[in-house]
C-alpha cells in the first residue's frame, strides 16, 4: 500500500503514520484499539501475516484465506473497555462495513484482546446484531 495514502482504518492519518507501522513495520500496537485498527487494515489490504501473528495462539487458525472480492470500506469504533497501555486485557466494539458481490454488509463485533508476551493480540469476538 502507498505509505502516503490515507489509512484504510479512516483515522485521518496516512498509512505510514498509522497502521502501516504495525502492519508492515512490525511495531507492537500500544493499545487494543490500535491493534483493532491495524487488523481491520490488514483485512483491507490482504496482510494475512499480520492477522495471524496478532491472533492469540489458542484461537488462531492454522491458515487464513482472504477473499479479494470482499472490499472493506469503513471502520467505526463503537466503544472500548480497558485495553490501554497498562492493561492486560480489553474489549473493542466495532462495525466494519464492506461490499461483497456488489452488496453492502456490516460486521458488528465485540472483540476481546489480551497481552501475550507483552504484545496485544486478538483472542476472540462475539458477533452482534444491529
From TrEMBL:
According to the entry, every stretch annotated as the YchJ-like middle NTF2-like domain falls at 31-125
Q: Which SUPFAM superfamilies match?
A: NTF2-like
Question: What InterPro entries does its record include?
Answer: NTF2-like_dom_sf, SEC_C_motif, YchJ-like, YchJ-like_M
Q: Name one Pfam family in it.
A: SEC-C
Q: Which domain of life is it from?
A: Bacteria
The similarity annotation says: Belongs to the UPF0225 family.
Its protein name is: UPF0225 protein NVS88_07515
Organism for this UniProt entry? Speluncibacter jeojiensis
Source species taxonomy: Bacteria, Bacillati, Actinomycetota, Actinomycetes, Mycobacteriales
